[in-house]
C-alpha cells in the first residue's frame, strides 16, 4: 500500500510540518480529500433540493428527452447523444489525468506534461460543450404560451411538438415595439419581446385544425405529457398571458420555471468547478514544464489537482444521471 | 518509492473501458426506454431508474477507488471520507425526498389542470 503514497520517504515532507503523517497521507492530500467531502455535500444539497422539487411537481416535471434534443450542426431531434459525448470527454480527461499522476510516480516529466496538456484540452472541450448546451437551452427551440396561472402550453402536430414559427404566420400585428434604454424616460430597458403576440398564436391555432395543445400534466401511466382536444385547447389558450421563447430564470418554455433555475444553478456550479479545475491544471502544467516538481523530488501536486479533477468528473456522473437519465 | 517501477497504466485503461461500457449502456437505455422497465414500478420508481442509479454508483465507485486511488489509502482514512459522505448524503436525500413527496400530496390536489 505504501506505493500509492507519493512521498513515502521521511526526508521529503512538503512543508516540513512534522514527520508524522496521520493515515500515512500527506497534509495536502488529506486536506484535499476533506475539501472534496465538503464540496460533495454541497453538490448533494443541490441535487437533493432538485429531487425534492421534482417530487413536489412529479406530475408536471419536464421530460429531459424533450428538453435536451439537439446536436451541433445537425437538425432534428437526438436526445442523449450530445450529453453522452460530454460525459465521455470528461471521463477521458479523467483518464489522462490519472495517467499524468502515474507518470509522476515514475518521475517522467515530459509524459506528465503531455498528459496534463491533454487533460486541460478535455476540460476546455467540456466547458465549451456546456456553453453550447446553455445557449441552446436559453434560446429555446419551440416556443410556448404561458397562462395567467403560470402553466406552459406547447403545440403538437401528429404527436410531435412543433415550433410557433411552424404555424404562426406574419409579423406581430399589435404594434408592440421593443423599449430600449435610449428612448425611455428612465434609463431602463425591457426584456426582449417575443416574436409573436398571444392573440396571433391563438388565431393561428384556430386557423389550423390539425394542431393541438399540450399541457405540462404528465399521464403517469404512459409517462407522457397530456395532449388536449381542440376545444379544451382553446379554453386553455383563452388564459394565455405571454409568449415564451427559450428559458431563463423567470420563464421556461419547457415547463416549470424552477426546472430551468435548477439546470442553470447546478450545471453552472459544476461548470464553474470545471473552469477552476482547468485554471489549476494550467498552473500545475506550467510548474511541471518549469521543472518545479522535478526539483522537489516528487509530483504530489499533480496528484492533488488530480483528486480535484476526478471529483469534478464524479459530480458530473451524478448530474448526468439525475438531470438527463432518471 | 517501494514499488515505483509498478505501473497502473493497464488497470487505468481497463477502468476507462469499463466506465465507457457502463455509460454506453446507460445512454442506450435512455434512448430506447423499454416499456417493461420504464412504465412499471418497483420500490417507488421504475426499474429503469433503479438501473440508472445503480450504474451511476458503479461508476462513482470505480472513479473513487481507481482514479482517485482510494483503494491505496489507509483503511481508516478511506472510511473517514467515504462513510462520512455516504452517511450524510443518504440522510439528506432521504429527508428531502420524503418532504418532496409530502409536498406533492398536499399541493397537487389544489392545482387545477
If you had to describe this structure to a student in words, what would you say it looks like?
The complex is a heterodimer of chains A (326) and B (113). Chain A has 326 residues and is α+β, with helices and mostly antiparallel strands. Chain A folds into two domains: 39-140 and 259-325, Four Helix Bundle (Hemerythrin (Met), subunit A), CATH 1.20.120; 144-245, no CATH class. Chain A is built from ten helices and six strands. In chain A, strands 1, 2, 3, 4, 5 and 6 form a six-stranded antiparallel β-sheet that branches. In chain A, strand 2 (152-157) and strand 3 (160-161) form a beta hairpin. In chain A, helix 3 (81-105) runs antiparallel to helix 4 (109-139) and helix 4 (109-139) packs antiparallel against helix 8 (257-290). The longest helix of chain A is centred in the last third of the chain and has 34 residues, at 257-290. Chain A starts with 26 loop residues before the first helix and ends with a helix. The model of chain A has no long low-confidence stretch (mean pLDDT 89). With 113 residues, chain B is mainly alpha-helical. In chain B, 73% of the residues lie in helices and 0% in strands. Chain B has four helices and no strands. Chain B is flat. Chain B starts with 8 loop residues before the first helix and ends in a 6-residue tail after the last helix. Residues 1-5 of chain B have low confidence and may be disordered. Chains A and B meet through helix 1, helix 3 and helix 10 of A and helix 1, helix 3 and helix 4 of B.
